[in-house]
């Protein structure tokens, strides 16, 4: 088997490494790159969690601060993101412990997105929703008026 380069043909490299693992040819494995790829896969799940939370929080903010524009679409987006969040956490329960830290990181991004969509610049500096509220299927914030 010709050695494939991680940098030049990632797909071929993954197939080669999988084959070497199955054949238990451990002396030929690219251990450092395999470790990096495994870490990257975990980070990808964490990035997906952050993306879901950002969209969810942005829509919660829009719901709260633009009560006159509330729509079924916003409500369904909130529901969809909560379902995505629930599924991701079921598949990766260890991510639950990262929720507070990720919410703190994505909240400023969620406010920027909400400001771009609404034209409003009155969102709180820190997240005004508890973790329980964010995760709750029944929670929709009250109007700030």
Explain this structure.
The protein has 145 residues and is mainly α. It has one domain (10-135). It contains five helices and no strands. The longest helix has 35 residues, at 31-65. The mean pLDDT is 93.
List keywords for this structure.
mainly alpha, about 140 residues, single chain
Structural class: mainly alpha
Q: What is the arithmetic mean of pLDDT?
A: 93
Following the backbone from N to C, one meets helices and strands in this order, namely HHHHH
| Straight-line N-to-C gap | 68 Å
Total separate domains = 1
Q: Indicate the low-confidence ranges by residue numbers.
A: none
Helical amount = 55-70%
Radius of gyration: 21 Å
Write the topology of this structure.
Blueprint: H1 10-22, H2 31-65, H3 72-91, H4 99-118, H5 131-135
In brief:
The protein is mostly helical and 145 residues long.
